[in-house]
Design a protein that fits this description.
Layout lengths: L1 H24 L10 H17 L5 H9 L1 H28 L3 E2 L7 H12 L8 E2 L2 H46 L5 H7 L6 H24 L15 H18 L6 H20 L14 H13 L10 H9 L3 H11 L22 H10 L10
Antiparallel strand pairs: 1-2
């Protein structure tokens, strides 16, 4: 039976190394039906979201969900390490009597201990290999332990660098589209200056952001679970708002050419489709309508108040619906799977942007009101 342990250990080591290579090194999505990392995230995220649903406070629930992304990286690296240690212990067990421990019997538990101290290069020397095969295996495992440490040191900074780059545009969206953002608010705030060059520059920046979002989150799938710094912001909300805004421009807004908006829409839609597969989202035909007839009417009125005229032809609703169906099922599916609230097309009530809020605001406003001639304006 020892040879079965050796084969099992070699297979386990190979599977873990392949999974680590595909997750960290290979910059593309793997379509194979079973992967350790995919199974790990599927089961751990299911448990985490079940716990989160018992938290009644939205802010506390969002804070709890924010722990999953960073914590999952640590757990995944630990899972790989434990698997490699166990695999090498199985191979050592299959090699037979080749280790020495001061006359004591070598049990499988002691082999796991020996494998662990070799992997982490502790070098206690209480268990020593006694033949060439065992020595070679010990050297191989120690080298793999060094490589594992190098991966941890190099992998985490790259992931957090990609996360920081992702969040820059999301933060910039705060003053342009509100908190949470919406397509109507975005166009309304630009209604006073709808210069084509300004809009095209903004859309080009977001086209590149969508491309970078797609590239980084396919290369590092754990980023899908990383939440933004504010509970009312997220990468999915930003992506959805850009799809909504470009959809409105393509449908028709007076004075705005849709050429660049079409390019941005195409890139954003590409990101939504591919990232829905990364997030293991499932299609549902029962999603609610994000933009009802009442919402569309209110959106037109609000845009008109800010000097933006949305196309009002007889086929306006159909043209808008044709574009929405290209991406809304995907963002809805990711929203359900990741427990992220999608942004509305038009926000139901006025709320301060994140940049307008601060922990000292009440005290400052109260102090300002005590001084004659001082007024506090809450509006942007």
């Amino acid at each position: 039976m020892h040879w079965l342990a050796t084969i099992g250990g070699v297979v386990l080591i190979f599977v873990i190394l392949l999974d680590a290579f595909e997750t960290i090194v290979l910059p593309r999505r793997i379509k194979r039906s079973f992967r350790i990392t995919a199974s790990f995230y599927k089961h751990t995220w299911t448990i985490w979201t079940r716990l989160a649903r018992h938290i009644k406070s939205a802010n506390r629930r969002e804070g709890f969900l924010a722990y999953f992304g960073p914590l999952s990286l640590i757990l995944l690296l630990g899972f790989w390490a434990v698997g490699l240690i166990f695999g090498f212990a199985c191979v050592q067990y299959g090699l037979g009597e080749h280790l020495q421990l001061s006359g004591e019997n070598i049990t499988f538990g002691k082999l796991i201990y020996h494998s662990g101290q070799t992997f982490f290069t502790l070098g206690y020397g209480d268990i020593t290999p006694s033949n060439a095969a065992a020595r070679a295996l010990a050297v191989l495992e120690a080298g793999m332990g060094f490589a594992f440490l190098g991966v941890v040191i190099g992998y985490l900074p790259v992931v957090y660098s990609a996360f920081a780059a992702r969040e820059i545009e999301i933060s910039l969206l705060d003053a342009r589209a509100g908190s949470p953002p919406s397509a109507t608010e975005f166009l309304s705030r630009l209604g006073c200056c709808p210069e084509q060059l300004v809009l095209d520059g903004i859309f080009r920046d977001w086209e590149r952001w969508c491309a970078e979002l797609l590239a980084t989150q396919i290369s590092y799938p754990a980023l899908v679970f990383f939440r933004s710094q504010h509970a009312n912001q997220s990468w999915l909300s930003a992506l959805t708002v850009m799809l909504d805004v470009t959809t409105l421009i393509i449908t028709g807004v007076d004075g705005i050419h849709p050429d660049q908006a079409k390019l941005t829409f195409a890139m954003a839609r590409h990101a939504a489709v591919d990232l829905a597969q990364v997030a293991k989202a499932q299609y549902s035909p029962h999603d609610a309508d994000r933009n009802t007839a009442a919402d569309l009417k209110r959106m037109r009125e609000e845009l008109a108040q800010h000097g933006v005229t949305f196309y009002d032809g007889p086929d306006a609703s159909e043209r808008l619906a044709e574009l929405r169906v290209l991406y809304e099922p995907y963002v809805y599916a990711m929203s359900r799977n990741l427990l992220i609230t999608l942004p509305p097309w038009v926000r139901p009530e006025y709320k301060k942007d994140n940049w307008q809020s601060g922990p000292w605001d009440r005290a400052i406003q109260a102090r300002a009101l005590e001084r004659p001639g001082h007024a506090v304006d809450d509006h942007f």
